Amino acid sequence: MLDKPDTPDIPLTEQAYRLIEERIVTLALRPGDLVTENALVEQVGLGRTPVREAVQRLAREGLLIVLPRKGLRVSESDTARQLLVLEVRRALEALLARLAAERATAAERSRFEAIADGMNRAADARDELAFMRHDRELNALLSTAAHNEYAAGTMRLINGHSRRFWFQHHKARGDLALCARLHADQARAIASGDTETAVAATAKLLDYTVAFAAAVSVTCATPKD
């Protein structure tokens, strides 16, 4: 079991969601794996009701597939689908970054700064789990601070897929320190309230992310001897 983050004030359903989503994104539960609700209850150490509600949310997001009378299957991940995800993410994240830079509250700006500091620490330590947790927090805060529920709802559907794809392939084709620092730059730009800088930092991050996915695609397509 992955170490649990410190979440004492977070509702049990949200805790269950974060723990199961983290297991999927960090490949403790791999694409194609079959799992039961009972097994998830045991793995995350929470009750059946919050786990069931978390499973329903993960199914809506496409990370879990419900198999009637059989259990659950972790959805597959591939480069073709990831490149389609990134087409949407590039446009949507630029919008969210601009809106968040304009609309974030003082408390939200402070959290963006804290995430940027955490991302830089993760870069220095090459700490992949810390990076993944800060990335999840940044995604959630970006959606909240934009104060547009429709854009936020769409973004929630694709964040987990992007994070899982990166984790699956980053050791072969990625640069954890660079990726973490690009996220830190985005978070700090949003915190500053400078919309142009926030959009530019987001574009730079997405340029890296698309290039990474394309490199993975080429690697996967290259015949092995």
Give structural notes.
- This protein is mostly helical.
- The chain has two domains: 12-74, Arc Repressor Mutant, subunit A, CATH 1.10.10.10; 79-221, Up-down Bundle (Four Helix Bundle (Hemerythrin (Met), subunit A)).
- Helices cover 74% and strands 4% of the residues.
- It has nine helices and three strands; from the N terminus they run H-E-H-H-E-E-H-H-H-H-H-H.
- It has helices at 12-25, 37-44, 48-60, 79-103, 106-125, 128-145, 149-173, 176-192, 195-221, and strands spanning 34-35, 64-67, 71-74.
- Strands 1-3-2 form a three-stranded antiparallel beta sheet.
- A hairpin with a 3-residue loop joins strand 2 (64-67) and strand 3 (71-74).
- It starts with 11 loop residues before the first helix and ends with a helix.
Topology:
Elements: H1 12-25, E1 34-35, H2 37-44, H3 48-60, E2 64-67, E3 71-74, H4 79-103, H5 106-125, H6 128-145, H7 149-173, H8 176-192, H9 195-221
Antiparallel strand pairs: 1-3, 2-3
Helix pairs in contact: 1-3, 2-3, 4-6, 4-7, 4-8, 4-9, 5-6, 5-8, 6-7, 6-8, 7-9, 8-9
